[in-house]
Specification:
alpha+beta; 1894 residues
Length: 1894
Amino acid sequence: MAASELYTKRARVWIPDAKEVWKSAELNKDYKNGDTSLQLMLEDGTNIEHKLDPKTKNLPHLRNPDILVGENDLTALSYLHEPAVLHNLKVRFMDSKLIYTYCGIVLVAINPYETLPIYGADIINAYSGQNMGDMDPHIFAVAEEAYKQMARDERNQSIIVSGESGAGKTVSAKYAMRYFATVSGSASEANVEEKVLASNPIMEAIGNAKTTRNDNSSRFGKYIEIGFDNRFRIIGANMRTYLLEKSRVVFQADEERNYHIFYQLCASSHLPEFKTLKLSSANDFLYTRQGRSPVIEGVDDTKELCNTRDAFTLLGINESYQMGLFQVLAAILHLGNVEIKDRDSDSSVIPANNRHLTAFCELVGVSYQDMSQWLCHRKLKTATETYIKTLPRLQATNARDALSKHIYAKLFNWIVEHVNKALITSIKKHSFIGVLDIYGFETFEINSFEQFCINYANEKLQQQFNMHVFKLEQEEYMREEIPWTLIDFYDNQPCINLIEAKMGILDLLDEECKMPKGSDDSWAQKLYNTHLKTCTLFEKPRMSNRAFIIQHFADKVEYQCEGFLEKNKDTVNEEQINVLKASKQKFDLLVELFQDEEKATSPTGQPPGTGGRTRLSVKPDKSRDKSSKEHKKTVGCQFRNSLQMLMETLNATTPHYVRCIKPNDFKTAFSFDPKRAVQQLRACGVLETIRISAAGFPSRWTYQEFFSRYRVLMKQKDVLPDKKLTCRNVLEKLVQDQDKYQFGKTKIFFRAGQVAYLEKLRADKLRAACIRIQKTIRCWLVRKKYLRMRSSAITIQRFTRGYQARCLAKFMRRTQAATIIQKYQRMYVERKRYRQKQAAALVMQTILRAYMARQKYQALLREHKAVIIQKRVRGWLARCWYKRCLVSIVYLQCCIRRMRARRELKKLKIEARSVEHFKKLNKGMENKIMQLQRKIDEQTKDNRAINERLAGLESSYTAESERLRSDLSRLRGVEEEAKNKTNQVASLLEELERLRKELSTTQKEKKTIEDWAQTYRNEMEKMVSELKEENGSLKQDKDNLNRMIQEQSQQMTEKMARSIAQETQQLETDLNEERSRYQNLLTEHLRLEEKYDDLKEVMASSNISKPGHRRTDSTHSSNESEYTYNSEYAELEEGSRAAEDVTRGMDTSLTLKLQKRLTELEQEKQSLRNELENKEDQFQRARARDDAEFKKARGAELEYESLKRQELESENKKLKHNLAEMRQSLLGNAAAGAGAPGSPAYKVLLEQLNASCEELDVRKEEVLILRSQLVSQKEAMHHKDEKETMTEPSVYVGDVSKLKDADELKQACIGLKDTNRSPRFMRKPLEVSDLLSRLRSATPDFHKLNEDGELWLVNQGLKETIRLLEHQLQTQRRSYDNEVEALRGELQNVKEENNRQQQLLAQNLQLPPEARIEASLQHEITRLTNENLELMADDPTASREARVIILRRMVDLMEQLEKQDRTIRKLKKQLKVYSKRIGEMGAGQTEGQTSPGQMVDEPIHPVNIPRREKDFQGMLEYKKEDELKLVKNLILELKPRGVAVNLIPGLPAYILFMCLRHADYVNDDQKVRTLLTSSINSIKKILKKRGDDFETVSFWLANTCRFLHCLKQYSGDEAFMKHNTPKQNEHTLSNFDLAEYRQVISDLAIQIYQQLIKCMENILQPMIVSGMLEHETIQGVSGVKPTGLRKRTSSIADEGTYTLDSILRQLSAFHSTMCQHGTDPELIKQVVKQQFYIIGAVTLNNLLLRKDMCSWSKGMQIRYNVSQLEEWLRDKGLMTCGAKETLEPLIQAAQLLQVKKKTDEDAEAICSMCQALTTAQIVKVLNLYTPVNEFEERVSVAFIRTIQTRLRDRCESPQLLMDTKMIYPVTFPFSPSSLALETIQIPSSLNLGFLTRV
């Protein structure tokens, strides 16, 4: 695509600007071919018209996309030109505070004028081993690249540091050398790296000075070659210097200083050793006061001189030579103060007794007369004679200054020579890295000979630089096999020819210097005549005939010819030199300085080409040949030769370039002046590098990166399996011009601007996609909004219509209501009218009807009366007729019935006479009889019932009769009494009258009393209310006080808890620090031991033997016996005498130094161990203080327990005594009948049994007493607490039931009285006597008697007391019954126990003596246990204390028994060993003689008690001569893999311990010691041999820890034995205490652990950065940005690239290996924690040093990777090991990359979130944050400053990076093994058949 097509609307360009050099603008409309101007808008909104050059039609430079701004490499920019470079540097320097930037192969360093924390050891470690493109630009990256290429390519390297004064060249070179010294170390013990660094303060003191541009400007050039051996360790160095600025010694401009050393001497003149120098303030000397700025702010010259002297000492320049140097320097200052006065116009004189000249002569040891004469005179020599000529004052002054400069130059060269001698080494130099610190291109208002030489050197360096860049470009193109076309670049060879070619400027200058009357003017004319017309680079100024202009590669420079010849000659008076040669100085330093004056070499004493500006100017004697005079070299010639040698050296090395830029002239921190920066960029060649890169194909992408970046520009059909072909096809479609790109083997090369075009296409595609996404989202949002609005409208309509409907309904209801009201109103009116009419009608009708009714009534009444009369009459008539008819009818009926009866009777008589009738009659009779019988029975029953009823009625009648009779009698009595009472009525009436009068009186008194009672009641109620209020206030006060007390108590408790927690945490921190220090010392000790072993091997290899010398391991010296030590010491003395002649010639200083260092480390180790123990004691004491409160509360119980313990101890002693008597008795009577009844053994055993029974009874009584006492004390304490907390009477009443006896009841009464005296009861309570008198009174006043509630309280108290007494009586009765029952049961148990004891006694008497004692004790223990269980079952609460005491007693007895048993076994074993030794000693005696061994053997036989097999299981026996074979097969030649897979974990440790147990069993001290020593040394040896094998280190770490645990488990210590089984406790060590060896083995385990961590770190280190940062676990999230010349590691997973899965697989491999080896789980947790710390620290450090990793998408990748690590922890069950917490800084850094970073709320959230990150880390991440896409935004500077302000108060370390070398202190918690030793089988594969199981 054409370049003009990119100039579209909104495209941004750079236009020139007078103030800012370049200014950004934006096109307002598209550019079309033929336009003469561009319509632009500046960033401030101003619209301008930019005219195009009508000749060139060059368009302004395009601006790079924002995502490319701030790139690490300038060549990564799509548009490579000056404004882009300047803007990128400015953004990095000002916004991101980054001072380093790559520009291809050049590192651009901008001086920040501020100390930055980016040069520490942690930064060096972070850059060590990294590729140059993988980390952010840094001087350390360049140094690492040089070091790596030296080691990889075996080619010498050079680092060329250039820049103008004040740009930071010296500091950069210093940091580069520091990096080499830190990374490589030294090959010897001479600390060469320290000496190399120590040369810096010396050279800065004598070669640096303050200028207007720099406070520490180097006024000379130097090239330091740092030599390395074949292992690439520093072995020495060599320094070459160039062009020292001697004129500064005698002259300084304003605001400048002389060399630092002069001011350091003047500032230290008060020191005693400098009194002889006769110095004073710097303002007192001419050579130090001309600049009028003797002090540099922030620099202490006195302190700097101390550093300089220390550096001299370190480099081997002793105090005498240092004083000589200082005398010469002081002499120069005094010489400058020598005043020369005019004698006349042609001569001058020095006044007599000039004190400064006198001081000068005294300091240099010359004659005052000679020096004063030759300062003012000069000797001239001709062919025939010599004569002396006087000098005018000006010439004499110049001669004095020339002498001063010459002396200083000599002194400077002498110091450089001695520094080189100190840095030289005898070891062959394999390779070197040179660091060139040389001046940059300079141009001033007045430029002289110095600037000419400096610019000449820069021309040569620039030519070399251009050729190197061109060569690298050519090699890159040829490697990628793309067409190579020559690139036109600036070649400055014509300028170099102008200066150094034949008849060049230097040639003409040397020729003019040889002329007798040569001058600067004549030399200028020669230059004009020679070059003005022939060379375009040479020009003559218009207004001057004594100057010339040269067109250098950087700029045109005008040089003034004045002084060129004099500076080129560099003459000095020969006679002055002779006077100095005759010096009688004490140290003969001047003689050394001028001893080479006769040689035709450089006056600096260096070989040709070593540099220096001065040349000898003293004329030779007559004896000298003329040819010698002609061969003297001028300064220019010498400089040209040394420069030529430098170029040859640089061309023979691989160069690395560092260009230092000075950002401003005011030394302001982080201030950027674009004009000054552009000048230096042009001068240092950075822009030329950009131009060369831009001329070819500057942008280069791998196919994978291109595919990943521009995948969005491809269609699905364009993506092919071959990505290379895919990229080719797509690129051909996107870019039509084939010349804009080239396809290489692995990369695609683009012309300048093509990447920007592709980025534009990508941005347009993404923008279109974003627009489509935005369109869809906006459509969705608008539709969603529309639906919400529609729903809202419908809702509003619904509510509106509802409202309207409600209004209509209301209107209709109102209308209807009005209608109804009207209806009813009208109805009411009509009804009222109707009712009025109706009432009137009714009245009328009533009257009418009443009249008619009355009339009708009268008629009816008359009719009715008539009817009644008729009825009466008619009734009488009817009755009369009826009576007559009735009588007639009755008579008629009687007649008829009589007639019918007669007829019937007649028929019956006839039927009775017939048979059938009789039968019928009989049959009916039978039935009737039966019915009659039944009826009779019923009647009988009824009769009986009636009789009974009758009898009842008779009885009731009788009773009623009696009652009536009695009532009658009573009534008669009453009647009589009534008669009597009637007589008394009169008297009663009189009495009634009297009572009525008394009643009236009583009523009056009652009313009076009621009034008084009412008044009293009101007063009492008022008083009660007041008391209640007062009581309420007091209660409130009390509650407040209680609340305050509780709050204070809670605060005190919390404060104490916090203080205890803080103290505990501090103690734990101190303990961890001490552990860490101790383990670091162990590491140092191990390193020194390895170095010592290496030295010993070297000495052994040099065939230097030491016969008789034997060294005991230092770690085991404490375990040596005195005899062994003395014998070895004697052997050592003999061996040393024998080897004295052999070792006399050796240099033993190094060995002595190592031994001394080892001793110091041992002492420090012991002191740290003691301090660690003290810390642990302090920790225990702090914990004990926490338990002090609890212990005080249990004081009485502890006292009682202590008394019981004393009694038990005395009883134990008694039992020991009895046991001893029993053993003596048993041993004294070992015959067969020793156990028979009546024997002493039987008697002693019987006495012991009786004593045990008595003791048992006593203990039972004591248990009962103790139980009762404890219960009473507990209850008393409980009631005491309750009594103290009672405040209300109701509480007393409620707690009366808890009182147990009369004393407690009395205490309750006293408390009740105290309560009544409380402020609530203001009136005085009644006394008991008063109360009794009131109760006994005839009419007691109960109101007054119970006015305070005493009666109720007394009544309640009496009731509760009675109830309590009854309860106690019942309780005592039940307890008495229980005790009686218990005593009966105990009596029965005692009887059974007695029978059992008798049976056991009979059984024990049949056992052997030893088994008899053990059986009796075992039975006693069983009996006590049964009793304890019975007590617990009967009364658990009461027997608890007794059970504790009995158990303690049992434990004490068991412990004492076990200790005695162990002591007996130990004594038996020792006795056995001694018997064997005595037997061996007596074996050589004759049989007839009685040897001492036989005498000893006789009493031994009875003591040889047989032991059971179970006491000696789990041991392995071996012979002494098999020890080496054991160690070899078990340790040295063991394969960890086979053991881990096929055998039990920790098998070697078990085998070693079983062998150790046998050595302990046989009490062989030497065997124990040698076995442990050889095992430890063998483990160290195998670790040294295979220390980089993780499997081996893990295997021996697990076995060492298991061996350590076995030593603890079977040591016999109670703390460890409680975890064992009884069987394991039988296998404890019995003869030796191996606590010291446990510490040694623990130290060994620590060393192995640290070796394991280092091994893991070496394996994980290459994986971490690639897997955690570079690899894209989530594909497509991170976009690949364009990269520069230095390609970074690709984030796409290629073959061989580590991924996160690689890390997880490696972690799983580590974990499975340690589990297979049987490593303790707690130790595995510590290892995993250390692994995760390394992963987190390395990842975070790389994140902080890589700008390309600080993006939002990378934060997402990191968080995903961390989640995968956490998932791995969760799968392995290691979430509680603390590993997750070590990743917290990395997690917070990832979150910081993803959070919003704009507002103050965001800043507050960041500060609260990033607690694990330091302020420096947070600010660094924010500065490095880089958007990957255009749509992300950068972090503003204001936001970063807000973060810094908020985090200002944090107290934290200023360190930027995490310490990746930090190792957490390891601990080995005790982990007992459940494996029984006797069950272990030794496999045959171990080749340990010589071991025998015991």
